[in-house]
Predict the structure.
Amino acid sequence: MTIGIAAFGPSAGEAVLAGLGTVESVGVGEIRGFGVFAALCPDGTLVRARTQRGGGSVMLADLGRQGVLSQAEAATVAAVISSGPDRPEPLDQFLPGSPAGLVTGHRLPNTPGADGVPLNLAVLQRIGAGEAPVAAVQAVIDANPEVDAGLIAVSKGALSLGETRRVERRNDRGQARLDIRDGTAGVAVLHNAIQPFEGLALLAAGAARAVLEAALPLLARFRIEPGITLEAANADGVWLTADGRVERVASANPGHPHYQGWTSSAIYLGTPVYQHGHRIGVTVGEARCRLDRGRVAEVDPERSSVTWRP
């Protein structure tokens, strides 16, 4: 198997399918063939789609035919595994699931371990017995260092991934994990035998992250108004009034006093936000403004707000 993706959080099902779709749109190699998708619903039931050929687009169509596409996309625990065409039946052996969670991966995660139990199923059994995904994955990997397998386990609010020593010796591996909003959501990717292997895992994780973040509650934001002057300072900062309006903006960018024109960096990403004399967060979005030598002369009405998080 060449790629496994797992996620938790709002719209996790849509997120893993978006990640796979992104890889299929740019990757070359063992892809767009076999696939298994699984989503864990809040009531503990599993929604699945399977295909031997066609990859993500066929699984999406299968979910539609079953009448469960919206349910699958909205699930808060989901995973997918995919590779080239025509893999051994039953396909669900490559992505076991239970009300406790799901286990995907790459290479041959269904290989029996030293105890005779397939590695992915052994991880799932441990999660079902109450172990956290990180402990379950590590225990199974440690017990089977030369099995050709990488594993990703996901349950409600938790995610873990690992690869055996044998897989770590490969030179075509990709791996990514993103924790979103301090663990409110997360996504992990493992892959091999797909080109380009450099950066492809992060591309898939980024596509999934966009879906997960869009499904989370809106972040706090403040509006930029024309007439604000960026004060020269040793460090960037935004100070808000008690009701959340911008009181003052400080900039350590030496280019701001000279710049004339439109920019999205009048208030830079990662700028500290202060209120009542205390730091309350950091900016994670940017507005589009026209600067005139350090003064905000005009603001794009479609992009006038800056989002921030604690």
